Amino acid sequence: MPRSDLAVTNPLAARIRHVIDTKTKPLGALGRIETLAEQIALLQGTDAPRMTQCTLTIFAADHGIAATGVSAFPQEVTPQMVMNFLAGGAAANVFAAVNGVALQVVDAGVAGERIEHPQLIDRRIAAGTANFLDGPAMSSEQAQQALDHGAGVAHAATGEALAFGEMGIANTATAAALAHKLTGRPLAGLVGRGTGLDDAGLDRKLDILTRAAARTGALSPEQAMAEYGGFEIVMMAGAMIETARENRVVIVDGFIASVAALLATKLQPETRRALVFAHRSHESGHRVVLEELEADPLLSLDMRLGEGTGALLAWPLLKAAAAMMTDMASFETAGVSSAG
């Protein structure tokens, strides 16, 4: 619904728009910050929104499709990076610390032995998904368990906004296959270099995913997430659905998180109102997913790391948007003459 139409039918929307438009600035002069402020205020149901605290949750899991060689990195990198997150050594840790964001890590299904660490949230479903080239990545029961675990983790997290990141070797392959089945968009536009595949590796990845996709026909979202999903992607979707249900902002990171957001909106369309898209990833499939979601990210920094790093960089913009509504003077309170 266009913003002007919403203001006519929703008194709160009209009041929020009035507050924004009567701040001491030319009409619309703060551009996307105004749009962001309006979204936050509508979600919180107030013309004085708050953005004071954010938590980043990184969901980690492994993927059976990695056995086909679709990633430039070996699968043992996943648990190694989990330990790096827990030790505070990753880019996400640095960006979280500098922006005052709490960070937590969830084992959604990392391959190998169970990781024992007092700060790790254990929601492990299995030691990685099955290889979806040969059959379903997970059972329908495991998919529902992943959704439920994600919702529970989100419910327990603190903040007016929650950000979600991911770690898992071969998860760009999983995300591309899942996005293809959720949208019907061609795989060629969704498959990218991931962790840095060369041309031959990219061709191999596309060939493997094309064969895997041919294994099934049209699927419902529930079927697609079981056939081609990853435990961390499905958990992120469950977390996003719950965050939106609680009228809190979801800060969506890059390609893989956006595929989780796409899944969330397919399962629960109302989730879309809570989604703020942080950045435009350098991963080629992200553009396609953003088009499907009719999303225009706040930032474009040629990043493709994941981990929630782009979401963390967008957090200060959310704080600024809310503060603009609550702390910035209006023409009336400041005694400044307005236009007209």
UniProtKB/TrEMBL annotation:
Keyword terms of this UniProt record: Cobalamin biosynthesis, Glycosyltransferase, Transferase
Family recorded in the similarity comment: Belongs to the CobT family.
InterPro entries per UniProt: Nict_dMeBzImd_PRibTrfase, Nict_dMeBzImd_PRibTrfase_bact, Nict_dMeBzImd_PRibTrfase_N, Nict_dMeBzImd_PRibTrfase_sf
Record has Glycosyltransferase as a keyword: yes
Active site: E307 (proton acceptor)
Organism placement in taxonomy: Bacteria, Pseudomonadati, Pseudomonadota, Alphaproteobacteria, Rhodobacterales
One GO molecular-function entry: nicotinate-nucleotide-dimethylbenzimidazole phosphoribosyltransferase activity
PANTHER family in UniProt: NICOTINATE-NUCLEOTIDE--DIMETHYLBENZIMIDAZOLE PHOSPHORIBOSYLTRANSFERASE (PTHR43463:SF1)
EC top class, as a word: transferase
Record-listed E.C. numbers: 2.4.2.21
Protein name (Swiss-Prot/TrEMBL): Nicotinate-nucleotide--dimethylbenzimidazole phosphoribosyltransferase
